[in-house]
Amino acid sequence: MCPMRVTWWLLTVVSISLISIVLSQQRVLDPLENLSLRVTSPLEGGLRDLADPIAEFFEGMVDRGDLVRENRRLKEELEQLQGQKVIQQDAELRIRELQDALGVKQSRPEDQFLVANVIAQEPSGLKRAIAIDRGMSDGLDEGMVVLSKGGSLIGTVSRAYQNFAWVRLVTDPDSAVNAQVGNSASASADGPALRGIATGDLRQGLVLDLLPSESQVAEGNLVTTSGLGGNYPRALLIGSVKSVEERPQAPFKRAIVEPAGTLSSLEMVLVLISFRPARLAGP
Question: Is 22 helix (H, G, I), strand (E, B) or coil?
């Protein structure tokens, strides 16, 4: 661009600016400004109406984000409260279990017990056994008698390791306990006790076999250890007669026994460490 054209362009811009200033001061341009406002006002209103939903949407997104964060915080607080409640309930359960164990100890002051927690169950379904968190380091040995927290017989230590042990339950097929049946489920001990063998059965649970065929065994009769054989102390509660199988011409009767302890949901047990099985050999 030549210098002459630049000069003319600058003069034109300056002139227009001066004229605009003068006209503005003389309010000559007011009608044009009013016209511009009348034209742009509807357009501005329309743009505002269009923008309001968008603004509300983004505000809603912000509010929704706040709600999500608040819900997350409340959920975490609820989780913490539930965890504290579980701990409290477990502590209360342990206290009740220890109180039950103390009751057993008071009823058998001559015996010594070791409290153990159940940590596993035999998973195959072919055995009836539990694992406890006590072992040889706690003085456990194979054959030791194990009781429920209520004091009834639930099994014996079948295998002991350094820090844990397996307990064979009385319902295991390999379990056999010399047992006897009282005459009545009440407290009466009149008359001789009927002796048999309480064996485990995968299908029926616990069966009392080898009862004399003429014996009068009835539902509700209490079943306890007889003490014969030296493997169990005498008069430990095993359970009660649930039903009697009548077998004509058979030399012995059989009875189904309901174990006194709830073997399917054991959480704590008592190991009778003051009793040592005799392991008597045959004649």
Answer: helix
